[in-house]
Amino acid sequence: CLQRFRNYASGEKTKPRTTPEFYDDDLPLLFLGSLVPVLDEDLVGQRLYGLLQACGSPSVEHENTLKRSARPAMALLKYLVCDFCEYDNGVKVTADPKQLNPFAFALCSLLPSQLSHMNLELHIVGDKRGGAKEDACHIISLIVTRHLADDGETTKYLPLETLLRSKAAQHAYETWLKQSAPKQLQKQVNKALESIAAASPQKQQAPESIKAASPKKKQVSIADDSSIEDEDDIDAEFGLAPKKKKAVAATTTTTTTSLDGPPIKWEDSELYREQVRKANTPERSSVRDSQQEVAEKKRIEQEKLKAQGKDPLGLKPDLDLREIQQLKMELLEQAVKDLHEEILEERNQGEADEEHIQSLEVQKESLEHILDTMDMGMNRDADSDNDEDETKGLNSSERSIIPTDPNFDPLLFLTLVHRNASYDVLMKSIERLSNKTENQVMQLQNLVRDNFELFVRCADGFDIFEGAKGANLETRLDNLDALAESCSDQARKSFKPLLDNTNEVRKVQSALRVLQRVGPVVQAPHQMRQHLENGRFSQALKAYRRVLIIEENCKIDLLNRVKEKAADAAREARRDLEKRLSQEKISVNSLLEGIQDLTELLDLDVPPDPREVLKVEDEKGGEALPALPVGSFDVGGLVINVREHPPALACLLMQAAHFRVLVTNTIEKADQNATRIYHGETLTSIQGSEEVASVRQNTFVDDMSVRTPESKKTAGSAGNQWKYDVLDARVVATIRAVDLMRTWLPRLLTIGTAAREDEKRRAARVGRHRGDGESQLTAFEVFLTNITPAVSQLVDHTAFCALGSAVRTSGKKVKMSFGSHSPDKLQSILKSPLPPVQSTQCAKELAELVRTVIESSAAANGLRHADNDHFDYNLSPLDECRVLAEEAVITVERRRCIFAFDVCARTCSSRASGSGKFDGDAILKCLHNLSEELYRPEECASEIEKGCELVVRRSCEGLASYVRDRGDSARLRAVAECADALAGTLQDVVREVEYLGCNSQAVEEVMEEDVMGLEGAMFDEFLDNVRINVANCCKVGWMGMVDGPDVASSTFPPYLSASLLAIVRCRAQVEKALGDKVRRLEGMTYQFLALATAADAISIGICDEVKTRKTHLKVKQADRMANELQFLMNILKSYISDEGLSLLEGTRRTLCSRAGRGGKAVDDGPDGLAAIEELERLGRVYVLCLGE
């Protein structure tokens, strides 16, 4: 965070570099946080942490150390006050080097007590972990040289002792100044210190009149307690903690002392005050005093003993020297033993260090010498015949390691306590010990230096008292008292105006500070008015909470006035919120926010105003008193008092009333529109062109061409435009009703859910005992009594507009929601079903209505209480509405299926009869549309099944009509369409029907039966025509061949040519129309079936002709015809049936017998194989077309 603020302040992240603008009011808040008055209302009451506090944050785990975060905080402070530069669009702003930057100016304007939060001493000395010595020294130099007086302009040098109280810190700073600081900075700091030192003697040589008046200044400072008391009284009204007078008195005393210098009278000294304090203290019981004194002495002795047992060098702070003193002999013996063992280990090693061994031996000898000396001393102590010289000497057994003991032995101390310490460690500890000694001496010197004048006066007093005798002393003292009293009176007269002005200034400053603290509270009414004008109710409530800290028995008129104005604003906010809850065109989120704000406002317990009605009247401009009380609203003739119910429940009641009014208006509007259309007005003139166009966008053009008459026509005129307009008006009414349901039902449920949650909170807060006392209205009861009837009415109206007076699936008729008193012609139009296009539009709207009602029904059931024994409903209050809506949807969707399949049947029949095409894609498209748009397709299964059967039957009838006046090509086209339908389209239709939940097997059987019947009839007719055609072709060319000369002919026989040409033509027709399609019944291709039929017809026809003329045939003719039949059998053997082959074979044998070959072919000759080859050559076209 510190680095981010530094980047922000330096402007390094902005391109071009531009530093932000800082205001003077923000900088003290940056440095001190909550220690300075906060003017921003958003920050009032928050605990803010200043940068100076971050620099001096003490560590929690370690004593006399800083947190680790203090170092970067001090680095940031040093950058702001010393290195900060302003940039504008990438250009550095050059400033006067003698002028401080904003941060440095704010820091140098702070008081010494505020600067003490940085803990500069710990940064300079004592903490290397979190301290920042270099940065702290720079900041000290800046404050010492550039500190400002109270006016913010005059430079007032700050003594170094004010920032660094310890001598060690001052010495460390002076060392840094000499060694590391620049020369220019050294000169500035030295100049400032010299100026401070030069000003100190002048202060001590003040005139006697001023010195005599100094006690009066102290009285003035003490008298300022009255202003502080006034300030505390005001703070107490806001619940703020009053300032402690002792702290103020201490501050005042310190300030007076700093102004007046050392005391110059005995009465001003601390010793005199201590004596007076003891004299004024009442005596207590002797037993209790003695017990306290004994306990205090015991505590002091214990602390003294603990201090004696500490290590003076500070190397082992946890060590107790007293324990070592008692065990010194044992410790010396153990040390000698350890050294002896260490020497033996060193000598036993292979590569021993002789120097180390010698050092250990020397240590051992020294310890043994000390032991011997101590043993000898103990023996001498035990010997009673010691001479006088020996008793005067120091006994070795009395040697001590405690530094405060007179027999302290440094050598023994180092041997037992710090035997393993290195030379460097001992030297550092000795330096630390010498510094402590020097500090004690310096403290004594500072004590004498600070109180030098008092010491001099005491010495003079001693001289005077020693030289005075008897009455002269008393006379001199009386003269001094008289002189002091005279000086005091004179000073009091001279400085009275100045002191009075000072007292007034301090009172004004105190009042200003109080006003600054209570400023947000005083401004609360004005801020509440502004927030209410802009609709920010939550902010207004936040401002009103600040006023609640004023106590009820406040004696300050200003604060009472503020509280009264804030209460008026709160009551106005309540009226505005109640008005907002009564509006119908406001959004749901705004209503929920208003409910929450009004609930919070009621929880604040705004005091009522008896004159609120009169104030509301004055705000309305002096009108007559309203007929309704404050908080009551008239919605559709129903008066609802918001203040009698919780906010959420009151909002639900008013919104339910609006919904009921809207439902009534919607029904009345539909009735009025129908009546106006019947009396001659057009729907466009009533509804508007855009709305009517949106309704009629799916209608046919030819229907629209007759719906825009130029003049009005009544029902008695010849035009029927009014009928179409009434039907379209019903569609418009359906759309409006569904829009109303789609908008308002979720809205009411959202508010009802909020009311139910509020009921749960209130029940959990105060307990809920239904039946005890007056029963309370609930959200569920509101839905049962106020909302459900309106929803049912709207659903009935929607069903009537969309269906007319049709019979529902339950067997009941749809009730007329309007038009019951209209003329008979109009009633007949209103009751009649809608045309397909309008019915389709209404089906979509009804599906949306059902979806909305179903979703809302589950949510409405959630409003029920857990203990619902007192309710008659076991289901959701909207279940009946849901059932009615679903029945309407099912009815209209069944009509839609009927209309859709009727249109599809007519379309498919038209295409089949006109172009001979079985349009299965149209059926699939119709089914796809229905599957996407039907809400309950399983309820329309019967209509879908019958519709599919109807479309297929009409298509087959159309194909039959197409073939009726056409030839074989049309028949083959119909057969091809049927084959395609059986192979693919009907299967897709069956699969789609199955997806819709219908009986696909029954539908498939009926459709295939119709299609296969048509296909069989058409193909059989084609085959019959093929037989007739081939039979006629077989009769061609026989007259010339039988009656002609009996010679071989080089031409192909005419009857064969005509017959084979007929079969080739049949093959071409079938191949063109059907290709390689397989007939489903026989499992063979249509082409093979047609060729087989033609081949059989040829065989029968030729055999009949041969039988007719065989008696007239000559031998050669019979032989040639036998070869021709053999040639025919070879060509048609793949298509001709077994009966045809046997018939041809019998006829050929008969011809062979006639020719005298006995049924056998001749090997050579014109009637042998050569004749067959000649026939194949002549009829090679047929061989290629019909051969394998």
Please outline the helices and strands.
Blueprint: H1 2-10, H2 26-32, H3 51-55, H4 70-83, E1 87-88, E2 91-92, H5 102-108, H6 112-115, H7 120-124, H8 133-146, H9 160-163, H10 167-179, H11 183-204, H12 208-223, H13 225-237, H14 245-260, H15 270-280, H16 286-308, H17 321-326, H18 328-348, H19 354-382, H20 388-392, H21 410-417, H22 423-450, H23 452-467, H24 471-522, H25 524-533, H26 537-547, H27 557-581, H28 588-603, H29 612-619, E3 632-635, E4 638-641, H30 647-678, H31 683-687, H32 689-695, H33 701-704, H34 721-766, H35 779-803, H36 824-831, H37 836-861, H38 879-915, H39 920-933, H40 941-964, H41 968-995, H42 1000-1033, H43 1038-1043, H44 1054-1074, H45 1086-1109, H46 1115-1132, H47 1138-1155, H48 1169-1178, H49 1180-1186
Antiparallel strand pairs: 1-2, 3-4
Helix pairs in contact: 1-4, 4-8, 12-14, 12-24, 13-24, 18-19, 25-26, 25-27, 26-27, 27-28, 30-34, 30-35, 34-35, 34-37, 35-37, 35-38, 37-38, 38-39, 38-40, 39-41, 40-41, 40-42, 41-42, 41-44, 42-44, 42-45, 44-45, 45-47, 46-47, 46-48
Task: Give an overview in words.
With 1188 residues, the protein is mostly helical. The chain is built from 49 helices and four strands. The strands form two sheets. A two-stranded antiparallel sheet has the order 1-2. A hairpin with a 2-residue loop joins strand 1 and strand 2. Helix 27 packs antiparallel against helix 28 (588-603) and helix 34 (721-766) runs parallel beside helix 37 (836-861). It is elongated and about 195 Å long. The relative contact order is 0.03.
